[in-house]
Amino acid sequence: MPSPAWALNDNRLTGGLRPPTIPPRFGRLGEVVCPPVAENKMRITKVEPIILRLPHVTEAVDGTQDDLLIRIETDEGIYGWGEVDSSPEVARAIVEAPTSHGIAHGLRQVLLGRDPFDIEQLWRDMYRATIYYGREAVVIHAMSGVDMALWDILGKATCKPVHKLLGGSYRSKACAYASVLMPETAAEAQRMARDYVSQGFTAVKFGWGPLGRDEGLDVELIAAARSGAGCARLMIDIGQQYTVKQAIRVAKRVEKHKLYWMEEPLPPDDFDGYRRLAGEVTVNIAAGEAESSRRAFRRLIQDCCIDIVQPDISRAGGLTETRKIGTFADDANVRLVPHAFKTGILLAACLHLIAALPNTELIEFSLADSPIRRDLLTEPFQVVGGHVEVPEKPGLGIEVNPEVVAKYRVA
Ligand SMILES: [Mg+2]
Predict the structure, then answer these.
(1) 32 pLDDT band (50/70/90 cuts)?
(2) How much distance in Å is there from the Cα of 36 to the middle of ligand 1?
(3) What is the pLDDT at residue 21?
(4) Contacts for 87 with CB less than 8 Å, ≥ 6 apart
(5) What is the pLDDT of residues 245-277, one digit of tens each?
(6) pLDDT of residue 12 exceeding 50
(7) Spacing, Cα 237 to ligand 1 middle (Å)
(8) Which of 105, 141, 163, 339 is labelled catalytic?
(9) Strands, DSSP E only, in 311-390?
(10) Which of 357, 353, 343 has its CA nearest to residue 316?
(11) What is the CATH number of domain 165-397?
């Protein structure tokens, strides 16, 4: 497949920075003299959803087998990247849909011609423009990718990393936890955990796979993972498979293995179950990757008594919404660890959020084998000494490899 048209406009030559069409102006005594309002507006000129897919997609609960990228261009030549963790074709339709009536639009209709700096207003306008068919789930997923791309543009336009625009930096790096699917056997779980620790990870999470089929096997797998992980932090993601009583039984049986958290033991709609579970066990309960928008997270934090909330920035409403969720969680004395099982675009967004929030320090680092995850960025993030550095380049601080996009693009 030939390189896409946008790849020919290679802003890597300028770092994707805002061209100096509006030079800074300073008056006497150094006060800033703003340019005329009309001159100071940037306009969105293109909103492009791009679907990537591996040639063979399996039933494994591995979101790196396909992807929906959102690329937004402006009249100043600045572009931004976002990413959506959803059903790519469904989310793309929400971006591309023509106007149906006054409050039933596709997102592109809302965005074209608008100033990306009106990012709060754009979020609310997208929400209002889709309110009959949106409000939660896939519409918020699609909005998340758009919002991420807009923050990338804002950073590039101001020559600032996104975390500075989000309010500053509590930290310059995040502690990475290795995140993988649980293998089928205890021996494999032990070996994998040992390998990740030897690579420098100080935290490891196993999830989904065989977990939830048999309580005895789950306990055996968790014990093996602890044996391999040593004193590293160990987390287990049950993948929504338990009833409340099952979760209580297993949590008590593995108490001696000192899990750092048990993730999504119950289906996401079992709010009452989460509240009952939290009152019965000592292990931290983590949940939230299935939720979208701050309203859902408010319910999860207030009503379910969970210990760690896990919004996915590519599903929960982008950085604009997830920052609000983080503040709400902090007010409730709940920690936030963003869910992230996609590519380096989402990883970058997570790093900027983690830098800008007080109540978070861990970042999920997927080790899925997909080349979409592994190769999409020209400079993939590296784990050094168990940590990943927060990008300091303008915007999200990443660049997408056009050859990889061309290779896996299906729409
Ligand atoms: Mg999970």
Answers:
(1) low
(2) 49
(3) 44
(4) 138
(5) 999 999 999 999 999 999 999 999 999 999 999
(6) no
(7) 5
(8) 339
(9) 335-336, 362-366, 387-389
(10) 353
(11) 3.20.20.120
CA 182 to ligand 1 centroid distance, Å:
12
Structure tokens, 371: 């080349």
Residue 349, φ and ψ in degrees, nearest 5: -60, -40
Q: Which fold has domain 5-160?
A: Enolase-like; domain 1 (3.30.390)
Residue 251 and residue 265: Cα distance in Å, rounded? 10
Protein residues with C-beta less than 5 angstroms from the ion ligand 1: 237, 289
How many C-beta neighbours within 10 Å does residue 331 have?
Answer: 10
CA 264–ligand 1 middle distance (angstroms): 6
Structure tokens at 49: 């959803």
Query: What is the Cα–Cα distance from 214 to 226, expressed in whole angstroms?
Result: 18
| In the predicted structure, residue 386 carries a pLDDT above the cut 90 | yes
pLDDT per position as a tens digit, 67-77:
999 999 999 99
Q: What is the band of 39 on the pLDDT scale with cuts at 50, 70, 90?
A: low
Active site residue 163: no
CB 381 within 8 A of CB 402: no
174-to-51, 140, 163, 353 alpha-carbon distances in Å: 29, 26, 13, 10
Find the mean pLDDT for residues 138-165.
Answer: 98
pTM for the structure as a whole: 0.91
The pLDDT of residue 60 is 84
In our burial notation (b when 16+ CB lie closer than 10 A, e otherwise), range 316-327 reads bbbbbbbbbbbb
pLDDT bin (cut points 50, 70, 90) of residue 389 is very high
Q: How far is CA 149 from CA 8, 40, 191, 230, 345, in A?
A: 19, 20, 39, 40, 10
CA of 341 to the centre of ligand 1 (A): 9
The domains of the chain are located at 5-160, 165-397
Hey, what are 217's tokens? 């096997």
pLDDT digits (tens, 9 = 90+) for 204-249: 999 999 999 999 999 999 999 999 999 999 999 999 999 999 999 9
CA 184 vs CA 5, 188, 209, 232, 385: distances in Å: 44, 7, 7, 21, 29
The C-alpha atoms of residue 308 and residue 301 are separated, in whole angstroms, by 9
